[in-house]
Amino acid sequence: MPAFPPDTSPLDTGPPGPGPLETGQSRLLRGPGEQRHFGAALAPALPPAAVLFLEGELGAGKTTLTSGLIGALGFEGPVTSPTYALIHAYPTPAGRALHVDAYRVRGVQELYELDLEDLIAGSRLSVVEWGERLYADYPDAPILRLEHLEGEEDVRRVTRLR
Ligand SMILES: Nc1ncnc2c1ncn2[C@@H]1O[C@H](COP(=O)(O)OP(=O)(O)OP(=O)(O)O)[C@@H](O)[C@H]1O
Ligand SMILES: [Mg+2]
What we know:
Layout: E1 26-30, H1 32-41, E2 50-56, H2 62-72, E3 87-92, E4 95-101, H3 108-113, H4 116-121, E5 125-129, E6 143-149, E7 152-160
Parallel strand pairs: 2-5, 2-6, 4-5
Antiparallel strand pairs: 1-7, 3-4, 6-7
Helix pairs in contact: 1-2
Bound molecules: adenosine-5'-triphosphate and magnesium ion.
């Protein structure tokens, strides 16, 4: 099971950004550029075989954040929603990055049939959308919730739930 070093924050965005997002804290991200930058800033502190859980409705910015993060690992192509494929795998110089959408996976059994555990263990990073059934299996993995703000189309709020 991946564990973060106890004395560093896994989501430390480092200078000159606004600092780490602690559990329970929120931040406003203004525009897709900031959304990508927030994702990219997570990359330096990723532990081996890192897992990051994302929650958020349609259009909340999950893929945009993920593309920033996977781009920061050195992948130069497009990152797209894994909604239909369930899993997208991106080769990066740092190792494989997985982007998983567990929304349509019916039960935990089906997740195990996908050998997701082994795929995650063999990847540098796994970003998992709608993975609440896996939260207990990866207790050290941060959970980020992404939300629209009412009446503000060009802003998203990110909250670290764990
Ligand atoms: N912080 C932001 N502020 C404004 N717009 C944003 C922000 N982040 C992303 N967007 C825009 O919102 C739209 C949806 O983003 P994205 O595809 O990343 O969402 P998603 O959560 O992956 O959606 P889906 O569930 O449909 O896959 C895109 O047009 C993207 O550019
Ligand atoms: Mg998406």
